[in-house]
Amino acid sequence: MEAHVLENQRIHFTIKRMLKWRWTLKETYRRIHVPFGVAYGSDKNKVREAGLSAARAVKDTIIEAGREPEVWLVGFGDSSLNFELVVWVGQEMAISPSRTHAIYLWELESALRERDLEIPFPQRDLHIKSGSRSRWRKRQTKTPRHDCCQSNH
Hints:
This protein has helices spanning about 45-55, 90-95, 95-115, 130-140; strands at about 1-5, 10-15, 20-25, 30-40, 60, 70-75, 80-90. The strands form 2 sheets. Strands 4, 5, 6 and 7 form a 4-stranded antiparallel beta sheet that branches. Strands 1-2-3 form a 3-stranded antiparallel beta sheet, with no helix packed on it. By secondary structure, it is an alpha+beta fold. It is built from 4 helices and 7 strands, in the order ββββαβββααα.
């Protein structure tokens, strides 16, 4: 039994009830999503421009009516505005998704750099309250010793 889903994929249910993803055999194109992030405060229009430029730089990107590349703002991360570059590719690119993502990410990094858009790295702030170390030492000295560890002197 098969069920067709978005982005020209179909789900194939085997007799053993295993779920398998298969590329469609009827269509020659497939839509893929390439996630990336930029620093908060970045100009969203420049991000879109960079993404579309990156898509055009990959020769196997399908660009035709109804299948134009798009850049979607998909979330607000801890350290970044999260986007997806959404592109249509042919079967040759679709059968190697890791390689395809790497190609698009390479072009995205170049396009973002050309436009001075920062790719952030995760950051965490650590706040240490004063006096907390001395309280820890007091607890350590009050910890009772076990009978086996005490000396008989």
